[in-house]
């Protein structure tokens, strides 16, 4: 089952409720685009490509909810919905990328009738979702070149089928290497505070029968320094034009320790996650989530009452720590400023 999809019969957006995994597998359905925006903020759906697809289907809902009888009224309603969806989470650029892609379709001059605009939006959202699955497969294929038989891979957060429409990014590379028959082992960072590694990555690897151990985030440096890691694979929520990579909080620390120990560090990044409008990573908006995520674990307070906490959800890894970036058009190496631009161009050339 796909992580996020459109139910044609019910005219609803459906998604796996990732907040309940691994304890329960539940699918939630939304009829209102505002609920889709809330589902993104509250992380029913998370992971950059999955958020993008969810927002695209959210706009399809917005078009259906609109009472407008004429093109201009519908486009106005879609702009309102786009603003609300775009504000759901700030760091993953796939959200704005998907919303902009659908708005461009809605504004096509040949679409004058509201019914045609609604149909075109649904078609575009479906295409975007299908493309996501296909390009993740291609990234997996390219990235698997980097994995040798017997390798141990360090992985952070969740970048699998749950983080995309299906298959995944960094975890997709691991699935591809496993499919090719390579004997691999994965060290899974638990990824505090939301525990995407412990809850979601461990669940996905277990389902596929891939060998892994869950580790506390704090153990990663030990495993790298003692020669127990061959390669670090992560995803990205936004990669700037110069190759600086924003990803789940804790990624920067991994990259620095990897470089110190001569371990290759590869983000796996669809070109939809590359933001050529931003010259460097310091321009990437970093989401800061509520302090209760740090102060509590599954509803239990883990610190003295009345204290404060900080909870940045992402950090930026400067490109000097990045060995290469796996994309759907191949592996990009420095100088990233030149080669990322070429990759984006190649990906958008039919
Ligand atoms: O806060 P999350 O769970 O949405 O963060 C997800 C990540 O950081 C992933 O590594 C990223 O989205 C890229 S993988 C598809």
Give an account of the 3D structure.
This protein is α/β, with parallel strands linked by helices and 350 residues long. It has two domains: 4-137, translation initiation factor eif-2b, domain 1 (Four Helix Bundle (Hemerythrin (Met), subunit A), Up-down Bundle), CATH 1.20.120.420; 139-348, Translation initiation factor eif-2b, domain 2 (Rossmann fold), CATH 3.40.50.10470. The protein is 41% helix and 16% strand. The chain has a five-stranded parallel β-sheet, sandwiched between helices. A four-stranded mixed β-sheet has the order 11-8-9-14, covered by helices on one side. The protein has a three-stranded antiparallel β-sheet with strand order 1-2-3, covered by helices on one side. The longest helix has 31 residues, at 114-144. The radius of gyration is 20 Å and the shape is globular. The protein starts with a strand and ends with a helix. The mean pLDDT is 98. 5-S-methyl-1-O-phosphono-5-thio-D-ribulose is lined by residues 46-49, 92, 157, 159, 163-164, 169, 196, 235-237, 247-248, 313.
